[in-house]
Design a protein that fits this description.
- One of its GO terms (biological process) is tetrahydrofolate metabolic process.
- There is one protein chain.
- The protein is mainly β and 90 residues long.
- It has one domain (1-26, 47-90): Folate-binding superfamily (Folate-binding fold).
- The chain contains one helix and six strands.
- It is globular and about 45 Å long.
- The N and C termini lie far apart (29 Å).
């Protein structure tokens, strides 16, 4: 059984969670349609450590997990308010 370290609930079975994609900074509200299309539909899909949005389904608690896509190892998890203005975790 794979365990996810939830910042709210502690270690939980991974089946209680859903991943909703990479954490990215959105374009400005007045950005071009092309910029919004790239933001909405294109992903880097890189090998290595990525920051992703995850949700604990029973509580609907959203948080960020850093995960290595090569090994599927969860490096760390933290709440979204721990992001700084550049989009990096503190």
């Amino acid at each position: 059984m794979k365990i996810m370290p939830c910042p709210l609930n502690g270690p939980r079975n991974i089946q209680e969670f859903i991943c909703r994609g990479e954490v990215r900074i959105p374009p400005a509200a007045d950005a071009s349609a092309e910029a919004w299309a790239e933001y909405l539909f294109y992903r880097e899909n890189k090998a290595g450590i990525v920051r992703e949005w995850w949700c604990h389904l029973p509580t609907t608690f959203w948080f960020i997990a850093e995960r290595d896509t090569r090994t599927d190892e969860i490096i760390r998890t933290y709440t979204f308010d721990a992001l700084d203005e550049s989009g990096s975790g503190r």
